[in-house]
Amino acid sequence: MDAPPTASAVEAVGLVKRYGATTAVDGLDLTVRPGTVTAVLGPNGAGKTTTIELCEGYRAPDAGRLRVLGLDPVADAAALRPRIGVMLQSGGVYPGVRAIEMLTHVARLHAHPLDVAELAERLGLASCGRTPYRRLSGGQRQRLALALAVVGRPELVFLDEPTAGLDPQARRATWELIGELRADGVTTVLSTHTMEEAEELADDVAIVDAGRVIARGTPAELCGGGGDVLRFAGRPGLDLVSLRQALPVGGDAAEPSPGSYVVTGDVDPRLLATVTAWCAQHGVLADRITTRRHTLEDVFLELTGKELRP
Amino acid sequence: MTETRTHTGRHTPRPGAAPLPRMIAAQAALETRMLLRHGEQLLLTVVIPTLLLVLFSAVDIVSAAGDTRAERVDFLAPGVLALAVLSTAFTGQAIATGYERRYGVLKRLATSPLPRWGLMCGKTGAVLVTLLLQTALLTGIALALGWSPRGNALGAALLMLLGTAACSGLGLLMAGTLRAEATLAAANLVFVLLLFFGGVIIPLDDFPDELRAVLEALPVSALSGGLRDILRDGAGLPWADAATLAAWSAAGLAAAGHFFRWE
């Protein structure tokens, strides 16, 4: 029953996919280790969905090599399909079908599905189980799509923006389920454009922009070296030279965009006091002072010069 | 096979496809339930054929259909059975499949263990079950109205199956190539046009010869004409009509297979 172990759950090398004149995926490399959660992170239009749909076998790449669970997703589709779970970004369900009915149906297509009632209960679908799909809320639809992806007990699940548009509670339930999948040895590939999600869930992150992976690693690796940052807003054009002189050794200050300041170094209470004291001396009312870890969001901004969330 | 796992949980992978017959049966059952639950579909598959049967047999509107009610029922029942085939295999299936394509249902199922041909088998199963129910209902009503069918039931069933294949091919061709809204409009339009010009309630003899020759080549005309030959006139299998339906089936299914777009 068990397939021969494969080194990688997904192995993509130099993947290219074009649609007419647009190149959606442009020489993308991706390796997914079995049993991990890999987040494909990038802004809208970066090529995340195309990449995932290539892995799911919806279309063949124009160039490059792609193996999913050691199989060619298009040529070996029949062998691959029972082993993967798929959550599309939207839709995929008959408008008139009831939530539980659809879940039961997809369970019936598999040999050893999860218990439908229990899964529905855990994802908060029990109360709307008899509601037709077209009358479900956006959040309920998302959770049903997630349930459909995992009900067949797949080895590998692809989740295309699993928490887009969810309220915090539903997002938490989804994150918990993804955590359980990981604990039980399921490999998960998810796309997201929220850094928080990648940081919370992913063992590995591949940052995608314009159809390529521009950085990869664990969240810690990607954020490492950046250290902590203190940010504040003030009137544009403050005297940075003076501010730098006031900072403890190893500290630095910058104004990446007018009126928005970033202080790096050992971010501790002393540094915060130094900055606010300097502001007081210079008659600056510092606004929105935050101290936090260097995040994937910062990494993305540094790598691309673009905000992830416009 | 013994294997050590450090952890076994609810989601521990145990992938596998269900046996094919079970998958196809599940697909057919789901699609049948949704066909029967859908209000507009029921209007098309049940209400309209029933109303036509009852109304046109009671009232002498179409003179060539017959002078007595029994004669009119003998004329109408085969036509209404052909209309039932058209409503389910063509119009209903085209609209449902068009929207399934539009809403990504076909896309979603394409990554399930059910192969595409299995999905098509499921659809065909749903159409056949629905047709069986329609035929039983309409036959019952016709008999209550005084229908006295003759001929070989097996021959009639064979013609209806050929008609189903022809209508399915054309319906799927439409659903797989046009936008869902266009399919909705076109499938309904074809239904109404063929209702009048397909020999269902108006005998083709009422049309001018040139037009009649064209109309007789349509699948619904071949089906209604053929069924009438058997059930009203007690003829054997009408080979010309069967051949017309077989040709439409081959052309329609081949074109659908070639041009159908899943997304």
Give a written overview of the molecule.
The complex is a heterodimer of chains A (310) and B (263). Chain A is of the alpha/beta class and 310 residues long. Chain A is built from 11 helices and 13 strands. In chain A, helix 3 packs parallel to helix 5. The termini of chain A are far apart. Chain B is mainly α and 263 residues long. Chain B is 73% helix and 0% strand. In chain B, helix 2 runs antiparallel to helix 3 (69-102), helix 3 (69-102) packs antiparallel against helix 7 and helix 9 packs antiparallel against helix 10. The mean pLDDT of chain B is 92. The A-B interface holds A 1-2, 56-58, 78, 81-84, 86, 88, 90-97, 101, 105-106, 108-112, 114, 148, 150, 152-155, 180-181, 183-186 and B 1, 3, 5, 7-18, 22-23, 26-27, 30, 33-34, 37-38, 99-100, 103-105, 107-108, 110-115, 263.
Number of strands of chain B: 0
Q: What is the average per-residue confidence, as pLDDT of chain A, rounded to a whole number? A: 88
Task: Outline the biggest β-sheet of chain B.
Answer: none
Round the mean pLDDT of chain B to the nearest integer and report it. 92
Strand content of chain B: under 5%
**What's the overall geometry of chain B?**
elongated
The helix count of chain A comes to 11
Arrangement of strands in the largest sheet of chain A: 5-6-7-3-8-9
Organism (chain A): Streptomyces radicis
InterPro entries (chain A): AAA+_ATPase, ABC_transporter-like_ATP-bd, ABC_transporter-like_CS, ABC_transporter_ATP-binding, P-loop_NTPase
Subcellular location (chain A): Cell membrane
Pfam families (chain A): ABC_tran
